[in-house]
Write a structure and sequence with these properties.
Helix content: over 70%
Strand content: under 5%
Number of domains: 3
Shape: elongated
Largest sheet: none
Order of helices and strands: HHHHH
Number of helices: 5
Number of strands: 0
Length: about 110
């Protein structure tokens, strides 16, 4: 009886320690991601450009162009991705022809159709 009780308490202690390790590791891996996004949003445009140049010169040039654009202050939200309807609507209002349409027009000119 005592051996059974001792074995059960030992298994309970081991299970409790395993649960403690699992739950503490979940907290460690979740918390740093919030700190990164919060600090990224607080950077000025010049800080973003400097950080990009530290990574690579081409990245710095692209970041300069991005910061010069009108939408540089907008924070990208993944849920606001362009869907098919919005892309078609923007193409309908766009006065320039796309590369595919220009190619079709050139092909029609060459073939005479």
């Amino acid at each position: 009886m005592q051996r059974l009780l001792k074995a059960l308490t030992q298994k309970a202690v081991v299970l409790g320690l395993m649960l403690l390790i699992v739950f503490s590791s979940l907290n460690i891996f979740v918390a740093p991601s919030y700190a990164i996004t919060a600090s990224r949003d607080k950077l000025t445009s010049q800080d973003k450009i400097d950080r990009a140049y530290q990574y690579r010169e081409g990245a710095g040039i692209l970041e300069e162009e991005k910061q010069a654009s009108t939408s540089a202050k907008q924070i990208f939200k993944p849920e606001d991705k362009a869907n098919i309807e919005s892309v078609k609507a923007s193409q309908a209002t766009d006065s320039e022809k796309s590369l595919v349409e220009q190619g079709k027009d050139l092909l029609e000119k060459v073939t005479g159709k």
